[in-house]
Amino acid sequence: MNLSNLTIKEATLGLKKKKFSSNQLVKACLDKIKKVEKKLNAFITINENGAIDQANNCDLYFKKFGEGIFEKKPLLGIPIAIKDLFSTKDLKTTAGSIIINKYIPPFDATVVKKLKNAGAIIVGKTNEDAWGHGSSGENSDHGPTRNPYNLERVPGGSSSGSGAAVASGECFMATGTDTGSSVRLPAAYCNLVGIKPTYGRVSRYGIIAMASSFDTVGHLTKTVYDNALTLEITAGKDSYDATTVPKDVPKYTHYLEKSIEGLKIGIPEEYFISGIDEKVENKILSAIKQLQKLGGKVNKISLPHTEYAMATYYILVPSEISSNLSKFDGIRYGDERELFGDEAKRRIMLGTYTLSSGYYDAYYLKAAKVRTLVKRDFEEAFKKVDVLIAPSSPTLPFKIGEKAADPLQMYLSDIFLCPVNLAGMPSLNVPMGFIDGLPVGMQIIGQQFSEKLLYQVAYKYEEATQYYKISPKI
Ligand code: GLN
């Protein structure tokens, strides 16, 4: 049996039935890492000894307390990976940038702490576009990550290493951050389930900030069940992050089987624009038919301010970036600022300009107002429908280097994903099949705090299609 290709659900069942130990699970992932890392470059740091020690502890724990321990520690003995934007105690954290290449955090981000408390084992820190700036992984100072389904292509970014690592079986789950697309795009390009939760659902404490009014923490997994289970663990109020909302976290996994008969599905007409790859369009149309077969009722919906979303995003996000990155000044934090990569420099310049006196009203303030209009579009839509369905990306995973020289082309990969972040809504990517051997994803968007419903819809779709079973041949 190839242990590293199991889902979390299957691995936990195997552990409970003593078919294998956590030590074996971790070793299977470490072996996979040794085998494929030279090709993929999904990790910046590998925690080999730490992971094996932790696995041995988990095995002892299970021996001592028996099966009941999984109630308290639902991820006991499961190897996972953490995006390098999350602070991990005693484990190097670089944000994908050489500016903080020597940072060993003295504490864990809240999400990391929760995952560890649930028994998960960290096998390593994943590669990413530096600071989260990017859609392909090519902006990493540690070299690009490659797509395990096709090594000439990008895995999607900025959580590029997390996508490649889960898809290839180097770990069972990886964390990501989604400021404009960065969980859902790598999930779409790597045949994975990726959640961008409601803004404020998951604590960002201990995560290096990109754009604070947009940043969310999400997870990449092979299946919907695994994703729902992880969010159950990580979501909730955190006194260290004042933007988290004191709302109960449902047991998402308990509701997955519910029928979606009568579900009102909206198709945003502005998302079916010229520029969308015809093959992707055909795929989403057949996915919609599949949802209809499952009982969904489909209606066209308009999100009239969609055309302004990208421009608004690329004013507000660089503004917040220029402010958040100002502390990395070579004195308080990090090495000298000349070491920032081109993309970070571009955003710092843009953000400094849009926030400067005289231009603030014309750009920042105006964009903040348009943001409200984009949010209102979604609110109006959700008066009529339960969820919105769209492709996650207008194109297939592109070739490494194909868009690197043209930032505007790169930014357009997020055209269907970033409006959701402007509005703070949750959205889930679920695998929608393959085109020419390359994975494509469907996005399910819901109103705030509707993650439970998103998982139900995705679960039914996954049950009917089972694309997650197609692993990359690497
Ligand atoms: N690709 C988008 C950007 O470059 C989103 C990145 C993200 O979500 N971290 O800003």
From TrEMBL:
Stretches assigned to the Amidase domain: 25-454
Keywords on record: ATP-binding, Ligase, Nucleotide-binding, Protein biosynthesis, Transferase
Top-level lineage group: Bacteria
Keyword Ligase listed: yes
Enzyme Commission code(s) on record: 6.3.5.7
Statement: the UniProt record of this protein carries the keyword Protein biosynthesis: yes
GO cellular component: glutamyl-tRNA(Gln) amidotransferase complex
Record's protein name: Glutamyl-tRNA(Gln) amidotransferase subunit A
Pfam families: Amidase (PF01425)
An MF annotation (GO) of this entry: glutaminyl-tRNA synthase (glutamine-hydrolyzing) activity
Coiled-coil segments on the chain, per record: none
SUPFAM superfamilies: Amidase signature (AS) enzymes (SSF75304)
Subunit structure: Heterotrimer of A, B and C subunits.
Organism: Candidatus Roizmanbacteria bacterium CG_4_8_14_3_um_filter_36_10
Reaction(s) the record says it catalyses: L-glutamyl-tRNA(Gln) + L-glutamine + ATP + H2O = L-glutaminyl-tRNA(Gln) + L-glutamate + ADP + phosphate + H(+)
A GO BP entry: translation
PANTHER family according to UniProt: GLUTAMYL-TRNA(GLN) AMIDOTRANSFERASE SUBUNIT A, MITOCHONDRIAL, TRANSAMIDASE
Family: Belongs to the amidase family. GatA subfamily.
Active site, renumbered: K83, S158, S182
Function according to Swiss-Prot or TrEMBL: Allows the formation of correctly charged Gln-tRNA(Gln) through the transamidation of misacylated Glu-tRNA(Gln) in organisms which lack glutaminyl-tRNA synthetase. The reaction takes place in the presence of glutamine and ATP through an activated gamma-phospho-Glu-tRNA(Gln).
